[in-house]
Design brief:
This protein is mainly beta. The protein has helices at residues 3-8, 14-28, 127-130, 165-177, and strands at residues 30-38, 47-56, 61-69, 77-86, 90-101, 108-113, 119-123, 139-153, 159-161, 189-191, 198-203, 206-212, 215-221, 224-236, 239-247, 262-273. The strands form 3 sheets. Strands 5, 6, 7, 8, 11, 12, 13, 14, 15 and 16 form a 10-stranded mixed beta sheet that branches. A 4-stranded antiparallel beta sheet has the order 1-2-3-4. The protein has a two-stranded antiparallel ribbon with strand order 9-10. The longest helix is centred in the first third of the chain and has 15 residues, at 14-28.
C-alpha cells in the first residue's frame, strides 16, 4: 500500500491534495532535519547531498515532505515523497528487531516486538534522520500512533460463524449438554469481540485492530475534521498498551463512536523513538 492510500485516509480526493495541499507543504513547511543520501547502493557509492524534511502544521496530525538534490548534480531540488505524520502518540517499550529501508534509505519500516513476544511493524516518519539511533536487539521507548484506513463497529451480538470447526465444536458442546438436541438446527454461533484488544500485522506497517474506545477527541487537520480515538490494543500480565488512532469521518462507518464501543478495521501504524518525537 502506497502513500496515496494513506493520504486518502485524510482527504478522499487525492487530486485535491496534489493541487492544493502539496504546494502548501513545500511553501510553508519547516525544516525538521536532514540526511545524506547516496548516489547508489553499489560499492563505493558517494554522497550526493542532503535530503531535508519539511513539516507542515503544528497539531496532532502533520504533513511531511522530503526534498533533496536532483540526480544530475545541479542546484535544483527534487520532491521525493510526502506522507501524513501522527505526531501525538503513547510511549511503550519495544525490542527493536530489524529495519527494512527502501532503495534510497529515506523511508522504511521497523520490525519490533513487545517484551512479551508479540511482533509488530511500524513506519517511522523520521527514519531518514533517526535510523542510526536504533539499537537492534535492545529495548527502546517508542511513541506509537496510527492513522485509520477504515474502521467499523463490531455488532453487539458479535461475529456470526456459520461454518467450520468453531461451529462444529459449538454443536458438540450443545449435544453434550443436551443429548436430545437437534444439532442440524444450529446454523451459527456468535463470537463476541466486545472489549477485545488485538493488533494483527497484515502487510508492511498496516495492521488489523480490534479495540474498545475509551476516549474520543475531535480535532481539525488543515481544515478537515478528524477524530482521535484512544483504546487498548494489547493486554497481558505486564499491563495494557493503548494507542491513539486518528480517523477521518469518511473512513469511519456509522459516524463518531462513543466510549465503550468496540471497533475493528485497518490502520497504518507509526512509531517514533520517544526522544525524537
Amino acid at each position: 500500500m502506497g502513500h496515496g492510500d494513506h493520504w486518502k485516509a485524510i482527504e478522499s480526493n487525492l487530486d485535491l491534495f496534489v493541487e492544493e495541499v502539496l504546494p502548501r507543504i513545500l511553501q510553508h513547511g519547516k525544516a525538521v532535519g536532514d540526511a545524506q543520501v547516496l548516489a547508489g547502493l553499489q560499492a563505493g557509492a558517494r554522497p550526493r547531498g542532503a535530503v531535508v524534511g519539511l513539516s507542515y502544521l503544528d497539531g496532532a496530525l502533520r504533513f511531511l515532505a522530503l526534498v533533496g538534490p536532483k540526480g544530475d548534480g545541479g542546484p535544483a531540488m527534487d520532491f521525493k515523497m510526502a506522507y501524513p505524520v501522527c505526531h501525538e502518540g503513547i510511549v511503550t517499550s519495544l525490542v527493536i528487531d530489524r529495519i527494512e529501508e527502501d532503495e534510497d534509505g529515506l523511508e522504511g519500516k521497523v520490525k519490533a516486538h513487545f517484551p512479551g513476544g508479540s511482533l509488530l511493524w511500524f513506519f517511522d516518519p523520521y527514519l531518514y534522520m533517526s535510523k542510526s539511533r536504533y539499537r537492534l536487539g535492545r529495548k527502546a521507548p517508542v511513541r506509537l500512533s496510527a492513522l485509520a484506513l477504515g474502521l467499523s463497529r463490531i455488532p453487539p451480538d458479535g461475529i456470526q460463524v456459520t461454518s467450520g470447526d468453531i461451529l462444529e465444536m459449538h454443536r458438540s458442546r450443545m449435544r453434550a449438554e443436551d443429548p436430545g438436541v437437534d444439532v442440524s438446527a444450529i446454523s451459527s454461533v456468535s463470537i463476541s469481540l466486545e472489549g477485545s484488544a488485538l493488533l494483527l500485522p497484515v502487510s508492511g506497517a498496516e495492521a488489523e485492530v480490534v479495540f474498545e474506545v475509551e476516549e474520543v477527541r475531535e480535532l481539525q487537520c488543515d481544515g478537515r475534521p478528524m477524530f482521535r480515538l484512544t483504546g487498548p490494543i494489547r493486554r497481558n500480565e505486564d499491563g495494557v498498551v493503548r494507542l491513539h488512532v486518528f480517523v477521518a469521518p469518511h473512513a469511519l462507518v456509522g459516524g463518531a463512536p462513543s466510549p465503550g464501543e468496540t471497533l475493528q478495521g485497518t490502520i497504518w501504524l507509526q512509531g517514533q523513538l520517544a526522544s525524537e518525537a
